[in-house]
Design goal:
- There is one protein chain.
- With about 500 residues, the chain is α/β, with parallel strands linked by helices.
- It folds into 4 domains: about 140 residues, Response regulator (Rossmann fold, 3-Layer(aba) Sandwich); about 100 residues, PAS domain (Beta-Lactamase); about 90 residues; about 140 residues, Histidine kinase-like ATPase, C-terminal domain (Heat Shock Protein 90), CATH 3.30.565.
- Helices cover about 50% and strands about 20% of the residues.
- It is built from 15 helices and 17 strands.
- The longest helix is centred in the middle third of the chain and has 72 residues.
- The protein is rod-shaped.
Amino acid sequence: MESNKIKVLLIEDNPGDVRLIRELIIEVKNEKFELETADKLSKGLKLLTENKFDIVLTDLGLLETQGLDTFRKIHDKVPSVPIIVLTGLDDENVATKAVHEGAQDYLVKGQIDGNLLSRAVRYAIERKQKEEELRNAKIFTESIISNVPEVIYSVNREMKVIYISPKCEQLYGYTSEEFINDPTKLWMEVIHPEDRQMLEPIHDKLTKGESYSFEYRIINKYGNTRWVHDTGNPLLDHEGKVERLEGSITDITERKRMEEELKRYNEHLEEEVKQRTNELIQSEKMASIGQMIAGVAHEVNNPLGYINSNTGIIEEQILSLKEICKEKETLQKLHNINELLETNIKGINRITTITKSLKRFAMPDEGEITPADINQGIQDTLLILHNQLKHRIEVFENYGKIPKINCNIGQLNQVFMNLILNASQAMDKGKIWIKTWVDNNNIFIEIIDNGNGIPEEAINNIFDPFFTTKKNGTGLGLSLCYRIIKDHKGDIIVESKVGKGTTMLIKLPMEE
């Protein structure tokens, strides 16, 4: 519309009324109108298609159509063009209905002058412009709302839904219409039964005019549980009372899942730290014991050297005495002394073997990887455990021809000791079979006992820290064994049958 010219279409089949409107328009001095007329609705609709008009004036009683139907056809054709209905006194009620359906105004024929007509046209155009602005603003707002990830809603003080954005269907599975048609029942039912008590504090805050923020679960139309974050702010009327509540609901299911995973990871990390700490404590203990054993072996070894040396000298002296002594009785005594001396020599050799094994077993564990003989490590371990096994456990050894491997032999000796001790403690009297062999890539150590066996429900947990089937066990021995073997890039496998025994199989790679 030009700033000083208003283009008007008049649809009127009464020539007298057309002439009257034209004259009224001429009377107006402060506005410029360009008037075009149509005596039929069809002609008027054609003109509206071909030309742009600022406003339509129409009679509702035309030959082709009557009443509201006339208005509706024009409005459907050009919904953005303002319409003023021209009516007589007898159908003023119909004109009022037309206004309710979207007409900007109505004028009663015979009761208007030029100024009234001009003012009505101007106001109708302005109102239509405002309506269009509001409509566009609404479309824009709805577009924004439909594209934000949150569900926007509005509820009244009774917690009945009066608006909820279309995004609700993605989260709840229900449309906006379903929520509004069932404003209270559905709103309550989608909340998880265990979390419905959340509504009470929400309603309390709403009553007090306070904002709120809650997290709870919902169950959507398809039975899926989702976590949501619900925030709301009350809107107050002129008296300061809550009129309604505007809020938003965000789907936080993924965040909750990640929080749960993080929690589980932290718990696992804490358990790992605890396990590592216990392993370090155990390692420190073993190191202390190792140092003590090494010290004892060293202290024993020195006097043992003297005894061994002196024994050799005594043996030589006895041989000399035998050569110069001819008395039968004396020779017999010398013979007896020699037999006792041979027994002492065997004992000395036994002690020497034990001290060497102790020194090898208690080798300082500084985490060094060096070539070591696995068979020798097992033999040293058995020698140290001899006292605990003798008279009770019969051990059968079957060592294959295996090469030395790069390993921490101190740690592996600890594994052998724990496994053999566990096997011996699983029975009062029994047998243990120890076997080693090699394939192309790995060395295998098998320890079998015919003890009580491990219950099936416990077999998957025996390497867990603090898990034990012993009355006074710490639950750290097998866990430590598992960690040592894994640190050596190996594997440890357990098979067991209650009442028949247990097999522990260790596999160690020949090259790390």
